[in-house]
Amino acid sequence: MTGDPAQLVSNPSPIDRLSRALGDRLAWLFLISAGLTCLEVLLDWIFRSPTIWVHDTTIMMSATCFLFGGAYALERRDHIRITFLYDMMSPRIRHWCDRLTLTLTLVYLGALLWFVTKQAWQSIKLVEMSGRAWDFPMPMVIRIAFFFGTLLLLLQALAHWIDAIIADRKVDDRERLP
Amino acid sequence: MSIEIITLLMVGSLLFLVLIGMPLAFALGFVAVSFAYAFFGFNAIQLIASRIYGFVNVYVLLSVPMFLLMAAIMDRSGVARDLYDAISVWAGNLPGGVAVMTLIAAVFMAATTGIIGGEIILLGLVAMPQMLRLGYHKNLAIGTICAGGSLGTMIPPSIVLIFYGLTANVAIGDLFIAVIMPGLLLAGFYLVYILVRCGLNPELGPPLPASERDIPLRDKLGLLKGLILPMGIAFGVLASIYAGIAAVAEAAAVGVAGTIIAAWLRGALNWEMLRDCVRQTMSTCGLLLWLTFGATALIGVYNLLGGIRFIQDAMTGLPFAPVVVILLMMAVLIVLGLFMDWVGILLLTMPIFVPIIENLGYDAVWFGILFCMNMQISYLSPPFGPAAFYLKGVAPPEISLQDIYRALWPFILMQIAAMLLVLFFPEIALWLPRVLAGGGG
After folding, report:
1. Contact A23 B279 (CB under 8 A)
2. Chain A residues touching B20 at Cβ < 8 A
3. N-terminal to C-terminal alpha carbon distance within chain A
4. Nearest to B284 by CA among B100, B76, B67
5. In terms of Cα–Cα distance, which of A18, A13, A10, A7 is closest to A153?
6. Which chain B residue has the Cα nearest residue A101?
7. pLDDT tens across B101-114, in order?
8. pTM (two decimals)
C-alpha cells in the first residue's frame, strides 16, 4: 500500500497532465480538512461552540479528493494489479491483454458515467439539500464531484487506451523513475 | 440460470481479468456492470452508482486520509530511524539482543508510522547490516525484520481495521482496542522465539562486543528525548479515541497537526515534504476508494442475484460445528492472501463472511481481529509476500528471494499459532475492550 511516487516521463498526454495537475492541487484539501477539523475540535473544547459547517465541509472535501483520486492514481499507475502472470507473458500477448482490459475498463466507466450524469443532473435541477443542521446542497456538490471524477477517470483510461490501440504503444515502453 | 453457475461465472471472469493484468478496481466494476446488465437490464446499473454515492458520504471515511497523512509525515520526518537508533543501544550483552531491540523498535514504529513497506525497508537498511556484521544467522535477521515490520497493521492505528470497521459496520475504536492484546501476543511470540533460539545457541545471535556496548547511560537516555513528541502524539491520538473524547476522524486530524508540529520542531518540515505527503495520500485514497467502489458494486449485484443468501445457506447448512465454519473461512483467507492484497480480500469476502459469523453468534470485532492476523500471514507467505519483496529490494545481493522465504516459515507458523489462539480463546481480543468499557472509559 505504500506505492512509490512514480513519475512517468515519456511525453504525457494532455489528459495525463490534467489528471496530475488536478490531483496535485486537490491533494491539499486533505491538509485543509485536517486544519478545519482541528479548528472544530478547539472551538468545541475550549469555547463549547462547535460549528455546524465544518463536519459537512470536510466530508465534501474528502469525497471530492477520493473521486478525483481515481484518475490521479491511474495516471501514476498506482492501481492495485496482480501481475505475476502478466509479467510472465510475452510482450505481444501482454499488449493484447492491455487492449482488452483497457477496453473493458472503458465499458465500466462509460456505463457508470451515464448514471452518474443522470443523478448529478437531477440533483442540480432539484438543488438537492443535505437537510442537516447546516442545510447546504451537499449532495449536489458531491454528485457533481462524482460526475467530474468519473469523467476524468474515463478520459484518463481513454488516454491509455489510445496509447495502447491507436498509437500502438506498449504500456511498458513508458519508463518509470524511482 | 442457477446461482451456483452464476457464482462460478462471476468468479471465473473476475479471476481471468485480474490475472491478465486488469487493475482490480476496474475488473470488479466491469464484472459488476456486465452482470447487472445481463440479468437485470441496463437500468440496474443505476443501483451501482447509488451504492457508490452512499459510500463517499460518510464522515468516518475522513479518518483514512488523516491516518495516511499522519503516517506519511511521520515517516518522512525520520521518526522511524530515530526509534531504531534510540532502542537498539539497549541491546547490551544479551544473545540475540539486537534482534530483540529491532523487534521492539518495530512495535513502536507500528504504533507511529505503521507503513509496512517503509518499516521493512528501513530495518533492512539499518538493522540488517548490523546483525549480519555481528555474525547473526541470516535467517533470524531476515525473519525478525519481515515479521516485525509487518506488525504495522496489527498495532493501531491500522488502515486494515478502519476498512474492516467500515465494511462490517463495527466501531473502529473497539477494533483498535481489541487488536492490542493479539498484536502484543504476536510480537511476544517473535520475542520468545528469538530469545529461546539465541539462548540455546548464542552463535545464532552474538551479543554486541564490549566496545560497542560501552555507551554512557546519559547518551542512551538522550537519544530517547527526540522520541517523546512523536510517541506522545501517537498515544494521544489513540487514547482520545479509546476514551471516547474524540471521533476517530477528529483524533486523526489532530494527529496530523501534531505530526506537522513535531516535524517542524525536528527541523524536518518543508514544503516539498508536505507536498509529497499529500500527493501520496491522494493517490492511495484514490486507489482505495475506487477499489471499494468496484467491490461495493460487485457485492451489490451478487446480492441482488441471491448470491450472498446462497453462500450463507451453504455455509450455515454445513454439518459441522460453527467453529469449523470459522476455520474454513480462515483457510479461504489464507489462500486468497497468497495472491491478493488485503484490501481486495477484505472488500470481497467480509460483506459475505461477517453476516454469517454474526448469524452463528460470533462477535464481529473478534472476527475483525482474526482477519487482521490472517492478513499478517499474507505479508510473509510465498509466492507474493510483499514483506519479502520489500526486504529483497534493500538486502545485500547475496541474499536471494528464496533465502528470505526460507527464513520466514517459522514466523508464519507463529502467526498461524497466534491466530488459532485468538480463534479458540476470543477473550484475548475481547477482554480489553470489555474492561475499558466497564471501567467507565
Report:
1. yes
2. 85-86, 97, 100-101
3. 16
4. B67
5. A18
6. B22
7. 999 999 999 988 77
8. 0.88
